[in-house]
Specification:
The chain has 314 residues and is an alpha+beta fold. It has helices at 2-20, 23-34, 38-47, 54-62, 70-82, 89-96, 100-117, 120-127; strands spanning 136-147, 153-164, 169-177, 188-193, 195-203, 208-219, 224-232, 241-246, 252-259, 265-273, 281-286, 294-299, 305-313.
Length: 314
């Protein structure tokens, strides 16, 4: 029964994004629902007489690129058959996603989910010997994001309070997901308080950076640790939103986004999602503060799912 319920949830999510889009989220959800790695998708396309590289498929489902050439549109039509989707379902979404503002928001929205789905983060965690959760519960989490004068994700700072679930915990593994077109090799991690930087892993294609933050003391079960770190990014263009995904219930989360005076958005809003490919809800407009040019949200107690802040450029 749990398997049947999970399958039903996946099917419901896929049906939702096929109706409402955007294209890249629907494509990613369809591929995930069929359980096909991109190499197999490419193989099926070749049997339909269509040649598309794995990198292009990856970019399409990230939102970093959109199929536009006649050959690419032939591939999209073939994908509908390969992925057992209704005819024209992906092509209709592709037509409805037109426009630079839509593409920009779509790309930013997709990037986090794509990086997680690709398994890059899991692979890095395994390389670092870091099990899921790392033996820590989050009591409080305050995140500050800076948007620079070129509308880029300039950087972010995190202030965390964690509690050890077992003896011997001595580190936290931070994950940063850059916007499409970013260069993780040019990003920097700074340990600011009660920690120091350990090993760092970077993956260019998905824009992922994973870094160890080593505590000054080894925690015992029940001990808490308050620490701060920052990631300097600024390597991509045109950020349109910032999202945070939670895998489990936790403590308070606060997100603040601050804009450079040279690049102020026309509108800002908060939103939630039950999962990376689920429908968005909980939208509420946010007023930009006058002097510091910032907006924020506060979740008193986080639950599994996605929460974020989006904005539109004038």
């Amino acid at each position: 029964m749990p398997h049947a319920t999970q399958h039903a949830d996946v099917a419901a999510e896929l049906d939702s994004v096929l109706r409402g889009g955007p294209f890249h989220v629907a494509l990613r959800a369809a591929i995930a629902a069929r359980g096909l790695p991109l190499q197999r998708v490419q193989h099926h396309l070749s049997r339909h007489g269509v040649r598309v590289g794995v990198t292009s498929l990856s970019y399409w489902q990230q939102g970093a690129r959109r199929p536009q050439r006649p050959e690419s549109l032939r591939a999209v039509r073939a994908l509908e058959e390969i992925l057992q989707l209704p005819a024209e379902s992906l092509l209709r979404l592709l037509a409805g996603d037109d426009g630079p503002a839509s593409a920009q928001r779509a790309a930013a929205r997709a990037y986090h989910a794509c990086a997680v789905a690709s398994g890059v983060v899991d692979r890095f965690l395994a390389e670092l010997g870091h099990p899921p959760g790392g033996g820590l519960d989050t009591v409080g989490h305050h995140e500050r994001v800076r948007i620079g004068p070129r509308r880029e994700l300039s950087g972010r700072e995190e202030h965390l309070i964690v509690r050890a679930r077992r003896d011997g915990v001595d580190r936290f593994v931070a994950v940063h997901h850059g916007d499409p077109g970013c260069a993780p090799e040019r990003m920097a991690v700074h340990a600011l308080e009660n920690c120091r930087t350990g090993r760092v892993r970077r993956h260019h294609d998905t824009g992922v950076l994973v870094a160890e933050l080593l505590f000054d003391v080894r925690l015992r079960a029940g001990d808490t640790c308050l620490f701060r770190y920052a990631v300097e990014d600024g390597t991509a263009q045109g950020s349109g939103e910032y999202v945070r995904t939670f895998d489990s219930t936790g403590g308070q989360y606060a997100l603040q986004v601050r804009f450079d005076p040279a690049a102020l958005p026309a509108r800002c809003h908060r939103f939630t999602q039950p999962s990376a490919t689920g429908p968005r809800g909980g939208r509420r407009e946010l007023a930009l503060s006058g002097r510091h040019h910032s907006v924020h949200l506060v979740e008193p107690r986080v639950r599994p799912g996605v929460v974020g802040i989006g904005w539109e450029w004038g």
